[in-house]
Amino acid sequence: MAITPRFTRTAAIVAVGAVSAFGLAACSTGDSGDSGAGSEPVTIEYLHRLPDGEGMTPVAEIVDRWNADHPDIQVKATKFDGKSSDMILKLETDVKAGNGPCLAQTGYSEVPQLFVKGLLQDVADEAKKYEDDFSAGAFSGMKVGDAIVGLPQDTGPLVYFYNEAEFTALGLDAPKTLDDLTADSAAAAAAGKYVTAFTPDEAQNWLSAQSAAAGDTWFGTAGDEWKVDAEGAGSERVAAFWQGLLDGKQTLATERWGEGFTAALNDGSLIGHVGAAWEAGFLLDSLDGTPAEGQWRVAQLPDFGAGAMSGPDGGSGVSVLKGCEHPAEAMEFNDWLNTQVDDLASQGLVVAAKGDVETPEKMLRQFGGQDVLAELGTATENLNPDFPYAPGFSTLSKMNETAAAAVAGTASVADIFTTAQETAVASLDDLGLPVAK
Questions:
Q1: Residue 13: is it exposed, middle or buried by C-beta count within 10 angstroms (0-12/13-18/19+)?
Q2: Torsion over CA: 257, 258, 263, 269 (sign)
Q3: What is the pLDDT of residues 257-283, one digit of tens each?
Q4: What is the spatial distance between Cα 136 and Cα 130, in angstroms, rounded to a whole number?
Q5: Alpha helices in 193-338 (DSSP H)
Q6: CA–CA separation, 404 and 318 (whole Å)
Q7: Is 101 left (phi over 0), alpha (psi -120 to 50) or beta?
Q8: Cβ–Cβ under 8 Å, residues 318 and 334
Q9: Which residues pair with residue 227 across a beta bridge?
Q10: What is the crossing angle of helices 413-430 and 398-408, to 10°?
Q11: Neighbours of 366 (CB within 10 A)
């Protein structure tokens, strides 16, 4: 069913928290009713994309524990084997046909558009019961205006990875501020080393996360309109930092997912990296069995000007889909699932829930015995709590093209954030959503 302009406009008003009779009705489908009434248990279907790889606690095993202890609320978990975009298409088709699951894994950047399309339920009253179980920054990823559509599962706060042995040899310490990182970049470059990599193929999520770490908020609401500000003071600081390194040839300019990054890691020329926390699970795999094994550490992101703050680069939550007949019971399971921190960590996730998580043996070996997950947990706690996404965020992939131009010298780093601003406004306009000019 096509989304009509009238529906889109109404959904937009709901999304930014305005009160309208249509909006409230659109978000109240599936009241919990009589959970567990009679002899028939409530059945909750849950669709996920977790890897379930070797050595991981299988999702089916986790769910079996729930089912054994909750005879009145039974959960059926299904793994989707495919890309996130394919899963979103399946959800859209199934929800419109009236046979979607109650719960599904959704990326934070996907949540606003799914909500505006009418695919997710506002379960704010239920979600607030569990808010204290999660970091504020991760919890905000499940918000669209005043609506809350589920609970967070994993996060991708930016952190700083560095080779401690190489830093010590150069007389450097892990950088605490952007000024430290600038000075370290110059010192390392003089020795033929790089303490950062500028990765244009990751610009969209990587640089927006740095703006968040610098204290910016790109998307907000004013009345029934969206506000976009991707060129704030934080973005200006981020742009000036990277422009200086590019101009001085003091950063490795290479695609994150190209051969150049791994080659520089392996030959020891790349000794530091501003990256997402989830990279800890595989970043150092190519160094196994080499003299560099165990030399790397992870630290908090240097202060980008807003104190001990990080920004979100990836991560997902578990959303309640429109049509779920038992949202209260679904959210009860949702909270339980996402607080099984050791099980989720075994799946390679940086969990959004509070609590101590045991660092796997592989990470201990690769990071020289460091309690990596404790450090990543601190980064999750430090996530900017006011950095929601907006519908159409996926179109900001155009930032990657401008970033490649910045590497080539035909654009500036500041132009990347201008691209973000212009693209975000155009995308919201194309969706028929009101934007404050």
A1: buried
A2: negative
A3: 999 999 999 999 999 999 999 999 999
A4: 11
A5: 203-213, 233-247, 259-266, 327-338
A6: 34
A7: beta
A8: yes
A9: 220
A10: 160
A11: 24
End-to-end CA distance of the chain: 31
Write the pLDDT tens digit of every residue in 28-54: 333 334 444 456 899 999 999 999 988
Q: Which two tokens stand for residue 325?
A: 């007949």
d(CA 117, CA 106): 14
Task: Tell me the whole-structure pTM to 2 decimals.
Answer: 0.88
Q: Which residue has the tokens 């005043």?
A: 146
CA–CA separation, 110 vs 258, rounded Å? 25
Place of tokens 């979600």: 127
Q: Give the Cβ contact number of residue 403 at 10 Å.
A: 27
Q: Which of 337, 336, 375, 338 is nearest to 353 (CA)?
A: 338
Q: Cα dist. 428→113, 115, 424 in Å?
A: 10, 14, 6
Of the chain, the percentage scoring pLDDT greater than 90 comes to 87
Angstrom distance (rounded) from CA 18 to CA 225: 10
Q: 388 and 226 in contact (C-beta within 8 Å)?
A: no
Query: Over the chain, what is the mean pLDDT?
Result: 91
Treating both helix axes as pointing N-terminal to C-terminal, what angle do 413-430 and 233-247 enclose, rounded to 10 degrees? 140
Contacts of 228 (CB under 8 A, 6+ apart): 218, 219, 390, 421, 424, 425, 428, 435
Burial of 283: CB neighbours in 10 Å, binned 0-12, 13-18, 19+: buried
